[in-house]
Amino acid sequence: MRFGIIGNLQKPGLRDAVRRLMDLLTRSRTPFCLEKELALLVGAPAEVCASSLEDCLASSDMMIALGGDGTILATARLVGQSEIPILGVNLGKLGFLAEISPEEMDEALGEILEHRYLVEERLVLEGTTPARPGKVYHAVNDFVVDKSRSSRIIDIETHIDGTFAVTYRADGLIISTPTGSTGYALSSGGPIVSPGSRVFGITPISPHTLSGRPIIVPDSGRIRVVVRAHSDEVLFSADGQIEEFLKPPAEINIRRADYAFKLVKRMDRSYFDVLRAKLFWGQDARA
After folding, report:
1. Of residues 23, 61, 69, 161, which has the active-site annotation?
2. Hey, what CATH class is 125-256 in?
3. For a FRET experiment, which of 126, 142, 166, 240 has its CA 20 to 30 Å from that of 68?
4. 3-122+260-279: CATH number
């Protein structure tokens, strides 16, 4: 197995974590490749493979992403249809997607080299808009459309499989995957959805009426939203990292992508373990 290593260059502790990782892989005689900017940051020796991100992706069986969830989301979009599995090392705060801490790298890598690990396939969203012909957007967590810099609410017509469903009057709308259900959608009142579920979540942001509730729909469907606003623009974003400003009325079409995001998981750690540890799920503050 050959590993490709990528990291968020702004994260404190990245240099030490990468050096430790290189030492572990070198001692186990496991081939690896560092993205070249990361290699420069850590002062990798000349004999270490350092190449462009594209070459690392092309030559690796598994990517190791060091940073926070944002680093993993960005890596997932870069991996795209090649579906290379990604192992996340958490150098951030919450790190909901990142499977291990730097202190766990030795044990976790030993398990991976012994083929004692799981690969979860996660749903990916695909979006298009007539305002950007030929451009395709992908998201692992969510697509969000919101009122941008305006203080006024917007009307968001929502259609499912060609049938009009509802018009939300709200600050915006979140279309999320099960992976993204614990992100922006959760903070906006959406449900937690286990990652193996084959569904989309549609969650309004600060709806103007109490009847504007989230809805769960099958991932086999197609969602079309038409945004009408009294301002000059609305904001469409993918995973909070890719942004487009669109002129209303703005139309966005969303479906399930033809590929999956593959996340490396340890065998002794369940999704519900992560919920309890990261989100204090079910914990009574009075106890």
Report:
1. 69
2. mainly beta
3. 126
4. 3.40.50.10330
